[in-house]
Amino acid sequence: MTKRGWLKAFAATVLSLFSSRSNIDAHAGQTPQMVAAPGPAEKLLPQKFPFDYVVVNGAQAFAEWEKLKTAGRGIPVIVGGDDDLQANVDIFNYYSNITTDDILKKADALEMPFDMEAFRRKEFESLKALLKAQGNEINFEDLRPEMGQWPTQPEVISGPTVQVDVLSRKPLGRVYIVLVPAKSSADIPAFLHWGGWNACPPPEVHVALLRKWHAKYGAELVSMSRDVVDLRVTQRPNLKEEAVVLASEQYQYCGDLVGQDSQGIKQLAGALLVSDWWCFWWD
Questions:
Q1: Which residues touch 228 (CB under 8 Å, ≥6 apart)?
Q2: Which residues contact 201 (CB under 8 A, 6 or more apart)?
Q3: pLDDT digits (tens, 9 = 90+) for 78-112
């Protein structure tokens, strides 16, 4: 099995053993149950979702998000179209046994500055016995992607991404911006109970890492759909060495950044040196 194959198998095993949160993709595919022709601040019915939201055309989503930042109605986050809003509602309701305060307390208890690789390594060590019982001997180092080569022309990462159709790249006709009563955008995953399925980290890990990236790079959560996170940064890494460390941390956070595109860490690092957007997704 290839290293990337091991990573996928490892992520699946982590899910089955250590996550009480189930894959909600089936819920996300359902027809949204909402008020006909919803307008600003209307509520989804019949499910509970205690957050106001604004409805805009996808072409205006980012500009409206900028305006809402200073409107005093909460921290805005673009969640995408009908299905993505419904998925966020499903996530919030499916995990009703936890509270925002519980998640924030867990995030506060994580060692700061938060080390994403240490978190994944701890998961891996807990799985060693099971892997061995299945006849699989593997070291954590074997799960690392190739470093690769520095790109001659680094790709500039663009965003946000959730307000457009994934295939046509055309703006969606209806996009939702949820208003969250958080102190900062880094805490939004705690309020929406977002994370903890497949290889996607649990919400407290999102909070801890987003806080770290905000402090160092000015990272701000702009979009969070059913399985995508878009961040805008105000400070890029300055040196190649710093970019490699950051790219490695982002790979531990979201393995598909490197695994799906068959690119190495240095290719991702090159993109981070020239980009003001970071985009993550979990299939």
A1: 80, 161, 162, 279, 280, 281
A2: 119, 195, 209, 253
A3: 999 999 999 999 999 988 889 999 999 999 999 88
Three-state SS at 76? strand
Taking only the tens place, the pLDDT of each residue in 129-170 is 787 888 887 788 877 788 999 999 999 999 999 999 989 999
Bridge pairing between strands 175-180 and 53-56: antiparallel
Q: What is the dihedral of CA 262, 247, 192, 78, to 10 degrees?
A: -80
Q: List the 220-224 sheet strands across, edge first.
A: 53-56, 175-180, 75-80, 220-224, 228-232, 277-281
pLDDT-derived band at 57, boundaries 50, 70, 90: very high
Cβ distance 69 to 221 under 8 Å?
Answer: no
pLDDT in tens, 163-202: 999 899 999 999 999 999 999 999 999 999 999 988 899 9
Q: Which H or E run includes 4?
A: helix 3-18
Alpha-carbon distance of 252 to 258, in angstroms, equals 10
pTM of the model: 0.83
Q: DSSP class of residue 171?
A: B
Q: How far is CA 247 from the centre of its chain?
A: 15
Could you please report the per-residue DSSP string of 34-70? --SS--TT---SSS-----EEEE-GGGHHHHHHHHTT
What is the amino acid identity at position 39? G
Omega before 145 within 30 of 0, i.e. cis: no
| Cα(223)–Cα(238) distance, integer angstroms | 25
